[in-house]
Amino acid sequence: MKKIVECVPNISEGRRTEVIETIVDEVRKVEGVKLLDVNPDESHNRTVITFVGEPEAVKKAAFALCAKAAELIDMEKHKGEHPRIGATDVIPFIPVSNVTMEECVELANELGQEIAEKLGIPVYMYEEAAKIPERKSLPNIRKGEYEGLKQEITKPERRPDYGPPRMHLTAGATVVGARQFLIAYNINLDTDDVKIAKKIANSIREAKGGYKYVRAMGVMIEGRNVAQVTINMLNYTGTPLFRVFETVKSEAARYGVNVIGSEIVGLVPVQALLDVADFYLRLENFDRKQVLELNI
């Protein structure tokens, strides 16, 4: 059976459609890779790209994407709500079929070294591929974002794992790693007070004593003039979507605020949605085999 790996690069461009398409075209050109999703966000000024394929083909597509992003995105001019340190901000590999996490870690290291050597972009390894325990967490690497890292990259504790201890003139730095499936989940509030979103985010994030496997922050969605709790669900079986949603709704009510909607960025496992349906519909003895599409 084929080995299948998923790759979900995040690039620091969510507004210029022609630039996004040109970068994504690099993935389309690689034989043996299937592009699954392209999800741009204007407010975050960021695009999440998802593709799958055999390991070597996926690595080739990821490098080509990173190289093109370095050509077309200038971090000196980039502004957006989402934390970032580079044109291609992060490149995670996720095992899907007949592939171990160890193989994804090896793949990540090979790509990180190639990006550093051929493109001159400093690379940090994270999650299961982290070489330093503190760098397992992506927020730790992004501390200070592009502007802060530019000033501190020469410090011993912030030197990259691969490449020179200096930012690429336009592409900044890149994070590469291997991890389990992550759900990017945002909850929008009917307020323009970002302080409320930040307080709610702190109530659910693991680092502040909230739910395990949850990272969250409060941001402002300028185009809609609403505050948002933006969330990374690192393990949807350990902490399900519905639990986080209900807590955000409850916390928002304490501040006289309502939830006006939520969104999933990129792809999501069907089981994560079935868990939500099971909770809200109070299904009895439900089995995923009852889902029509899963039987076709």
Written overview of the protein:
- This protein folds into 2 domains: 4-178, Formiminotransferase, N-terminal subdomain (Formiminotransferase-cyclodeaminase, Chain B, domain 1, 2-Layer Sandwich), CATH 3.30.990.10; 183-295, 2-Layer Sandwich (Alpha-Beta Plaits).
- The mean pLDDT is 95.
- Strands 1, 2, 3, 4, 5, 6 and 7 form a 7-stranded mixed beta sheet that branches. A 4-stranded antiparallel beta sheet has the order 9-10-8-11.
- It has 8 helices and 11 strands.
- It has helices at 17-28, 55-72, 101-119, 138-141, 145-152, 194-204, 241-254, 270-281; strands at residues 4-7, 10-11, 33-41, 46-53, 88-97, 123-127, 174-178, 183-189, 214-221, 226-233, 259-265.
- Helix 1 packs antiparallel against helix 2 (55-72) and helix 6 crosses helix 7.
- Strand 9 and strand 10 (226-233) form a beta hairpin.
- The two termini are 20 Å apart.
- The protein is globular and about 55 Å long.
- With 296 residues, it is of the alpha+beta class.
Topology:
Layout: E1 4-7, E2 10-11, H1 17-28, E3 33-41, E4 46-53, H2 55-72, E5 88-97, H3 101-119, E6 123-127, H4 138-141, H5 145-152, E7 174-178, E8 183-189, H6 194-204, E9 214-221, E10 226-233, H7 241-254, E11 259-265, H8 270-281
Parallel strand pairs: 5-7, 6-7
Antiparallel strand pairs: 1-4, 1-5, 2-4, 2-5, 3-4, 8-10, 8-11, 9-10
Helix pairs in contact: 1-2, 2-3, 6-7
Subcellular location: Cytoplasm
GO biological process, one term: L-histidine catabolic process to glutamate and formamide
Main location: cytoplasm
